[in-house]
């Protein structure tokens, strides 16, 4: 090839679109796969499916949901961190795999914060401490008294080690005077709630959206919520802060991430869609009915990639201190 022609050909090649973009056309031109990093039935799954339903209606492409649980959300998160950074694989995640696990797993973490890009926050929810109605424990003070009277004799179930319910309960035990209540982790909220409703757990703790149906139907008795204010859907249930642990607050949250090298225009497009969905009256009504609060990361009550990224950084630092102070470990 004559040397003089090489710059011309090189310039022409550089002007061509990337192969993926050339094949796919403008984003999005095919289905976007949403991986949920916890099993079906829990709040992560509920939140992801609410947003997946509206996202596919807005963008005109299917958004199939794939549950890939395990290792407190790490398995699904790692799968997305290693996926092609083209916008066609996204992650519905929660506070544990997005923030808590970095301190809890330490060197065993299969990915780092910089491996995932923030897109937007879906919602925030309190956790609820509950007992089976057959239990003589009727208030959170009763639970504290019972735990102090029989150290190590009581147990509590959660959706898994390192999740927000687990860490909220460990924080409560620490700040309520070092209570000794044995943790029984499950592989997701669904299996845990089956055992709680059957009366085979003395105490349980879970995100409000996934257990609210059992509470409303009288299958579980709520003792306290972990948020800084009472829940609008459970106004009669006190907070830990107003009862046995002044100043206590621990909430769960859920949002969307993507592989880190996903092009910024795609991140911004998806972030704008999530922001619009979070402000829809119908979506807000569904969230409120579950006892969840909207994202409220931006001045107008919505979300954005930049705001969610900053939020995650703060949460990683916050929960690292909780893990350190409580001595929590992976069971």
TrEMBL record:
It holds the Pfam family TctC. The keyword Signal applies. InterPro entries: BUG (IPR005064), Bug_dom1 (IPR042100). Residues 1-22 form the signal peptide. Keywords: Signal. SUPFAM superfamilies: Periplasmic binding protein-like II (SSF53850). Belongs to the UPF0065 (bug) family. This is MFS transporter. It comes from Roseomonas fluvialis. The lineage of its organism: Bacteria, Pseudomonadati, Pseudomonadota, Alphaproteobacteria, Acetobacterales.
């Amino acid at each position: 090839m004559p040397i003089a022609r090489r710059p011309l050909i090189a310039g022409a090649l550089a002007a061509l679109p990337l192969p993926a973009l050339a094949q796919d056309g403008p984003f999005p031109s095919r289905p976007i796969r949403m991986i949920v990093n916890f099993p079906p039935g829990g709040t992560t799954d509920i939140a992801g499916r609410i947003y997946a339903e509206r996202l596919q209606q807005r963008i005109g492409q299917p958004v199939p949901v794939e549950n890939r649980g395990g290792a407190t959300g790490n398995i699904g998160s790692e799968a997305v961190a290693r996926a092609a950074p083209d916008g066609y694989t996204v992650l519905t995640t929660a506070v544990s795999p997005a923030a808590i696990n970095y301190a809890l797993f330490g060197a065993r973490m299969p990915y780092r914060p910089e491996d995932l890009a923030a897109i937007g926050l879906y919602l925030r929810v309190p956790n609820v401490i509950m007992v089976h109605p057959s239990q003589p424990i009727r208030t959170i003070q009763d639970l504290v008294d019972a735990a102090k009277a029989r150290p190590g004799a009581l147990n509590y179930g959660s959706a898994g080690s390192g999740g927000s319910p687990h860490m909220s309960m460990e924080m409560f035990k620490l700040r309520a005077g070092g209570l000794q209540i044995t943790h029984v982790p499950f592989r997701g909220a669904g299996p845990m709630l089956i055992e709680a409703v059957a009366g085979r757990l003395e105490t349980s703790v879970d995100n409000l959206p996934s257990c609210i149906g059992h509470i409303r139907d009288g299958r579980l008795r709520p003792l306290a919520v972990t948020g800084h204010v009472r829940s609008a859907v459970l106004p009669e249930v006190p907070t830990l802060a107003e009862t046995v642990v002044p100043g206590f607050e621990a909430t769960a949250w859920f949002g969307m991430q993507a592989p880190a090298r996903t092009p910024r225009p795609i991140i911004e497009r998806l972030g704008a869609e999530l922001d619009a969905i979070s402000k829809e009256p119908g979506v807000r009504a569904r969230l409120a009915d579950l006892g969840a609060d909207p994202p409220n990361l931006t001045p107008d009550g919505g979300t954005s990639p930049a705001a969610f990224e900053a939020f995650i950084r703060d949460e990683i630092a916050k929960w690292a201190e909780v893990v350190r102070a409580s001595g929590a470990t992976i069971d």
